[in-house]
Amino acid sequence: FAGKLSSRNRLKKKQPKTFKVKVITMDAEMEFSCEVKWKGKDLFDLVCRTVGLRETWFFGLRYTVKDTYAWLKPEKRVLDQEVPKDSPITFHFLAKFFPEKVEEELVQEITQHLFFLQVKKQILDEEIFCSPEASVLLASYAVQAKYGDYDPNFHKPGFLAQDELLPKRVLMQYQMTADMWEEKITAWYAEHRGIARDEAEMEYLKIAQDLEMYGVSYFSITQNKRDTELLLGVDAQGLHIYSPNSKLNPNKSFPWSGIRNISYSEKEFTIKPLDKKKDVFKFYSSQLRVNKLILQLCIGNHDLFMRRRKVDSIEVQQMKAQAKEEKARRAGEAEVRGHGHEDQGGEETHGAEDEGGRAAGRQTGGAVGAQV
Fold first, then answer.
1. DSSP characters for 231-278?
2. Which of 82, 226, 314, 316 registers the highest number of CB atoms within 10 A of its CB?
3. How many angstroms separate the first and last alpha carbons of the chain?
4. pLDDT at 367
5. Where is there biased composition of kind Gly residues (predicted)?
6. Counting beta carbons within 10 angstroms of the beta carbon of residue 294, is it exposed (0 to 12), middle (13 to 18) or buried (19 or more)?
């Protein structure tokens, strides 16, 4: 009996103290060995440190559960959540919340880059609707970010053949060959001469943030027990109610600034407007997991909405100052390189023409962006 007991104790001791995790970001895959006692925050912080990301409040670790997805909760142990039972457990490191104004809020280059990759994928996967004109302009900025300045001697016809640059819906809308599309994109691309990678990615995001479906998480809901199908959209601005077949124009919107509170009981949500003369809006969602997700996104988006309207924290102020210094340093280096080119003779005017072309391109780009 004593022998059995000691062997049972030995077995107990051999239980693994770690578990394996695979984290997929927009441009890399990483594997970690985590301690069994780790909370979501421990894993999330480790990923952020590895990636070099400081603007952590936009991001989360997403995993699949049944027929939906969930975000890893920071305060709860990883293994106590409904994470897949695989080894390694797979998480996607993604933007969970979107800024209202990308150029003001996204400070670090790595943050901008991850947003750029995620939004670009959503546009190509048609999760964000984009008109053909805007798609071509966005593609030209993506090409500038990837290939640098256009050089007709180097970027020969067919150089974009392997790149996925336009949504399939746009490609199928017109009777145009791949070469014709490339020509269209290259005409814009040539106008972006002199724009650095991070600037090209920021220009891309500035256009994309004006698209109606940008940054919106959609959920199927019903307005009453008789099942009138509707869609709920949650984003940085507030809550929006759509007809099931139209994700572009909401029938009703509740901006965060106009909401007194959102309460949730079992399957019923209640939105109470600040203006007491306005009707209370109720909707129903039948899946508990989805309801938790809706609530999480409401709280997180509302918190960020309030935070934006306060003075930046010391950490954000420091980040902005560092980013400004880094930009100035790079601009200085580029200027020195530019003077080096001038000394080679006969290139100064050519550079000025390029600069004019770029300014014209930017102005036109703005017009197309506004038109979208």
1. EEEE-SSEEEEE-TT-SSS-SEEEEGGGEEEEEEETTEEEEEESSTTS
2. 316
3. 78
4. 34
5. 363-372
6. buried
Residues 46 and 70 in one domain: yes
d(CA 79, CA 36): 7
Length of the chain equals 372
Phi, psi of 279 (to 5 degrees): -70, 145
90 and 126 inside one domain: no
Residues 83 and 153 grouped into a single domain: no
Residue that is last in its domain, among 194, 214, 234: 214
pLDDT tens-digit map of 211-244? 999 999 999 999 876 677 999 999 999 999 999 8
Q: Which residues, listed in sequence order, are joined to residue 265 by a DSSP beta bridge?
A: 268
* Alpha-carbon gap, residue 288 to 271, rounded angstroms: 18
Query: E-assigned strands of 250-364?
Result: 252-255, 259-265, 268-273, 281-284
- What is the spatial distance between Cα 281 and Cα 244, in angstroms, rounded to a whole number? 18
Q: Taking every pair of C-alpha atoms in the chain, what is the biggest distance, in angstroms?
A: 95
Domain count, the chain: 3
CB 294 within 8 A of CB 234: yes
Flag whether 273 is in a domain: yes
Together in a domain, 41 and 54: yes
User: Is there a single domain that holds both residue 207 and residue 134?
Assistant: yes
By residue range, what is the domain housing residue 300? 217-308
Q: How far is the C-alpha of 121 from the C-alpha of 136, rounded, in Å?
A: 15
Q: Quick one: average pLDDT of 148-152?
A: 95
The residue ranking higher by pLDDT, 10 or 113, is 113
Judged by DSSP in three states, 55 sits in: coil
**What own/partner pairs with CB < 8 Å and gap ≥ 24 does 45-50 have?**
47/23, 47/93
Q: Are residues 205 and 238 in the same domain?
A: no
User: Which DSSP helix (H) or strand (E) runs through 92?
Assistant: strand 89-95
The whole-angstrom separation of Cα 185 and Cα 89 is: 40
